[in-house]
């Protein structure tokens, strides 16, 4: 496989609705931004595309990807559509990586969007629920907030995780988004405000959940030769991994924990895994990406993480799947202040010392605050990670407070269903 680099990207503002724009125009805005950010890049340099969007129902259009391809002026070049629930954008990013790594293309554009505002919230939740098992779970009232409420209830029972720890995740991500002009719902929150917000599915309140959104994002991945020719400040995609699991949680067997290099079997000798408290697919995705990128201790080898926080609870669960802390320690990881940015005042007190080195998680604001236009979300993460590694956050956001000092390596993570598709990609400064 050949080395693969990201050389430019763009996003639109994520919003509850963009009634004045259809999906084609949103993708074009992100694409035009990416073109303008790398002088000398033209459509002629792009060999093909991968297009990601979650649901045909939101656009009422079965061939939306083909329509985007045409609107961007990229016909008759190759294209294909990727769909994989909430991980659609992450799968799209890795599909574009494969096109370049394999030698099939020198430059592949990953582009994604969603227009969720075209339906009422209750109808949107129904469409999303169709990404569960419609033979067994969905007919008896299965919907995603209910699934994640059940999973975090088990996490609370097994490991002592608290609603206050979950609320701290919401405080962190919404506060980060105050400095992100592309975010849908930036806010300065308190733990009490998160807990007082309307209950959706106990213990999850509305502020524990991400929102339906409109938005688009693009990322251009290229070969080393093309990166050298086009210049700019490329970022290498050094590791990719994907994991899966059974759709029905009742079908998931107990098995030994998939170990990362810095862990031992003895640590988890008495834990039933994965149960419904953890995502085996996420651990597999992390293991494969770490092996490819040479990551042996993610808490120390990574400088930031942009992960799929559709719920505050799933962010805590994902800390553990990624090996940032041990299984069962996710709540304490939050209490220690480990995933918080060091230069922002969240109105929270953290202990003077921690067993974990500071590792900012979702400096962009994540899905909770940026929004979740599903087909675009994983690509949005890639764009923010790219800007972070370039050191260009201030230029793109008009504010430097989210910029980390000289980050070398970051991770992006996409998650679908109740863990049925999960991707992890590692990006490194060159």
Strand order of the largest sheet: 3-2-4-7-1-8-11-10-9
Largest sheet: 9 strands, mixed
What low-confidence regions span 5 or more consecutive residues with pLDDT below 50? Answer: none
Strand content: 15-25%
> How far do the termini sit from each other?
18 Å
Q: Please count the beta strands (DSSP E, at least 2 residues each).
A: 11
Mean pLDDT: 96
Helix content: 25-40%
- N-to-C SSE string, H for helix and E for strand: EHEHHEHEHHHHEEEHEHHEHHHHHEE
Structural summary, described in words:
- The protein is an alpha/beta fold and 430 residues long.
- 36% of the residues lie in helices and 17% in strands.
- It contains 16 helices and eleven strands.
- The chain has helices at residues 23-36, 56-59, 64-71, 88-101, 121-129, 144-159, 163-177, 191-196, 224-230, 280-293, 298-301, 312-321, 330-335, 366-370, 374-390, 393-397; strands spanning 4-11, 48-52, 79-82, 107-115, 199-201, 204-205, 214-223, 235-244, 304-306, 409-416, 421-429.
- The strands form two sheets. It has a nine-stranded mixed sheet, with helices on both faces.
- A hairpin with a 4-residue loop joins strand 10 and strand 11 (421-429).
- The longest helix is centred in the C-terminal third of the chain and has 17 residues, at 374-390.
- The protein starts with a strand and ends with a strand.
- 56% of the residues are buried.
